[in-house]
Specification:
β7 and β8 form a beta hairpin. α1 crosses α12, α2 packs across α3 and α5 runs antiparallel to α6. Helices cover about 45% and strands about 15% of the residues. The protein contains twelve helices and ten strands. The strands form two sheets. Strands 1, 2, 4, 5, 7, 8, 9 and 10 form an eight-stranded mixed β-sheet that branches. It has about 325 residues and is α/β, with parallel strands linked by helices.
Length: about 325
C-alpha cells in the first residue's frame, strides 16, 4: 500500500494496553498490515503476540479476565526486587510463545526495555520473545526485573514510552503510533483520574471473608496495603504507578516532539484505571473506534505515498 515499510509503535499504559488489540483489528480489517512492530511495556506484550501470530490468543485471554482472575495472576514476592514475581504471567505467555524467538518471526519486532543502573535504552530484537516482553513490562517496584545477556532490565517506558524512533531505525518509512495516555497528557500537570478504579481497589470485592486462617488474613492485608484501604488512601501500587505514569507522560511528550510519527492513534480511555485489566471488552472496542476515526486519513496518506504524490509539510 505504501512505498517502503509501515511501522507501528505501541506505547505503554498497563491495562489500557488492551486498546492496542482493537487498533490492530481495525488496521488489519482496512488492509493496513504493519511490517515493523516496536512496543514498550504492554505495547510489547500485544505487539509481540501479533508479530508471533497469536493476536487471537491474547485477545481471548484479555476478554476472559475478571477482577478475581486478575488478582490470581499476581504472585506476591515481598522478599524480592518487586512486589509481584510475574511467574504466573510468564507461564501463560510460555503456553503460546515459549519456543518462539524474535529473529524467527515473519515481521520485525523489537521490545524496548531500560537497563538498571545505567538507564540505557535497550532494544530487544533477538532471543526468546517471552523474555523480551517480560523485561519490557517489568514495572519498577511492582514486577521483578528480568536478566538478559547479563543485564538487569525493567520497563522501557522510562526511556521510550512510544517507540517511534525504533520503528524508523528498523527501516519504517511510515510510522503509526498509538498513545494510550492522551487523556493524561491533555491535563497538563494534573494527575486527576490516574490510578485504580475504586471498585477494583475494594478488597472485599475480590477476596473471600476472613476466616481466621493466617493465609487468607495475609492475603487481605496485602490487598489493602498494595491496592488501597478503601478510604481514599492510595495503596503502594497506586503511588508507584502514578509516579511512574507522570514520568512516562513527560518523556513521551518530549520524545514525540523530537521525532513525531506520521500518524497518531489516541484511544479515548478516560475513566479506565491502569489496573482495570478486567475491562478488556470495553477497552478493545475503544481502541478499535480510535483507529477507525483515523482510517480515512491514513488510507489517503498511504495511497499518496505509494503513488509518489506525497508532499512533505512546509516548515513554519
Amino acid at each position: 500500500m505504501v512505498a517502503g515499510k509501515i511501522g507501528l509503535a505501541l506505547g505503554g499504559g498497563v491495562a489500557r494496553g488492551w486498546a492496542h488489540i482493537g487498533v490492530l483489528r481495525a488496521l488489519i480489517k482496512a488492509g493496513i498490515k504493519p511490517d515493523i512492530i516496536a512496543g514498550t511495556s504492554i505495547g510489547a506484550v500485544v505487539g509481540g503476540c501479533y508479530a508471533a501470530g497469536h493476536l487471537d490468543q491474547i485477545e481471548d485471554f484479555a476478554r476472559s479476565l475478571t477482577r478475581r482472575k486478575v488478582f490470581g495472576f499476581l504472585d506476591f514476592n515481598l522478599a524480592g526486587t518487586g512486589l509481584i514475581n510475574g511467574q504466573r504471567l510468564c507461564e501463560r505467555l510460555d503456553e503460546h510463545m515459549g519456543q518462539c524467538n524474535i529473529e524467527d518471526l515473519d515481521r520485525k519486532f523489537t521490545a524496548v526495555a531500560t537497563e538498571i543502573g545505567t538507564g540505557h535504552e535497550v532494544w530487544l530484537n533477538r532471543g526468546r520473545i517471552v523474555d523480551a516482553v517480560r523485561a519490557s513490562y517489568a514495572l519498577p517496584g511492582i514486577f521483578k526485573p528480568v536478566k538478559i545477556d547479563g543485564r538487569w532490565l525493567f520497563d522501557g517506558a522510562l526511556v521510550n514510552p512510544i517507540p517511534v524512533s525504533v520503528c524508523r531505525a528498523l527501516g519504517a518509512r511510515y510510522v503509526i503510533a498509538v498513545n494510550l495516555n492522551v487523556d493524561f497528557s491533555s491535563r497538563g500537570t494534573s494527575t486527576a483520574g490516574i490510578g485504580l478504579d475504586a471498585s477494583f481497589t475494594e478488597p472485599e470485592a475480590i477476596a473471600p471473608p476472613v476466616t481466621g486462617k493466617n493465609g487468607i488474613a495475609m492475603r487481605r492485608l496485602l490487598q489493602r496495603q498494595i491496592f488501597g484501604k478503601g478510604d481514599d488512601a492510595p495503596g503502594i501500587s497506586t503511588v508507584v504507578v502514578d509516579a511512574f505514569n507522570i514520568v512516562q507522560d513527560r518523556i513521551a511528550r518530549s520524545r514525540l516532539a523530537g521525532d513525531p510519527p506520521d500518524a497518531m492513534i489516541s484511544p479515548k480511555l478516560h475513566g479506565v484505571g491502569l489496573f482495570d485489566f478486567h475491562r478488556a471488552d470495553e477497552v478493545i472496542r475503544r481502541g478499535e473506534i480510535a483507529a477507525q476515526r483515523e482510517l480515512e486519513d491514513l488510507g489517503r496518506e498511504l495511497e499518496a505515498r505509494r503513488s509518489g504524490n506525497h508532499q512533505p509539510p512546509l516548515l513554519s
